[in-house]
Amino acid sequence: MTKKIIKSDEEWKSMLTPEQYHITREKGTERPFSGEYNNSKEKGIYRCVCCGAELFSSETKFESGSGWPSFWAPVNEENIKEETDNSLGMQRIELICNMCDAHLGHVFPDGPKPTNLRYCINSAALELEKEES
């Protein structure tokens, strides 16, 4: 069972940048092609910027052309939960950190094999723990 991390809005605001807070706590979205990790080729583990949970590996990152970092699978499916998102007049699947309830992005069924999924994630919701050389 995942141990939940619960903080007040003031605690989140004190530890996150305004953009990170808006995206992770208020379900915002960064502008396409603007995020720090969109074009990153560095190897490592992408963690939740709010709680440090392992979310994605650079091994599953791919260039989707969408403008956001994209992955074809999470490191551990238990670290991410999915919820239906009916905003913007369409139905999408929202991705949320299972440890701290941070909004991460969305998943779409147009990714590469083997999963055919595209986990489309906001850079501001991530922190890359670089692999040591």
Estimated share of beta-strand residues: 25-35%
Major beta-sheet overview: 6 strands, antiparallel
Radius of gyration: 14 Å
Q: Give the helix tally.
A: 2
Q: Tally the beta strands.
A: 9
**Coarse shape:** globular
Helix content: 10-25%
First-residue to last-residue Cα separation = 33 Å
Give me a quick take on this structure.
By secondary structure, this protein is of the alpha+beta class.
Features:
alpha+beta, 6-stranded antiparallel beta sheet, 3-stranded antiparallel beta sheet, globular
Characterise the protein shown here.
- This protein is an alpha+beta fold.
- Helices cover 12% and strands 30% of the residues.
- The protein has two helices and nine strands, in the order H-H-E-E-E-E-E-E-E-E-E.
- It has helices at residues 9-15, 18-26, and strands spanning 44-48, 54-57, 61-62, 70-71, 80-85, 92-97, 103-108, 118-121, 126-130.
- The longest helix has 9 residues, at 18-26.
- The termini are far apart.
Which helices and strands occur, and which strands form pairs?
Blueprint: H1 9-15, H2 18-26, E1 44-48, E2 54-57, E3 61-62, E4 70-71, E5 80-85, E6 92-97, E7 103-108, E8 118-121, E9 126-130
Antiparallel strand pairs: 1-2, 1-9, 3-4, 4-8, 5-6, 6-7, 7-8
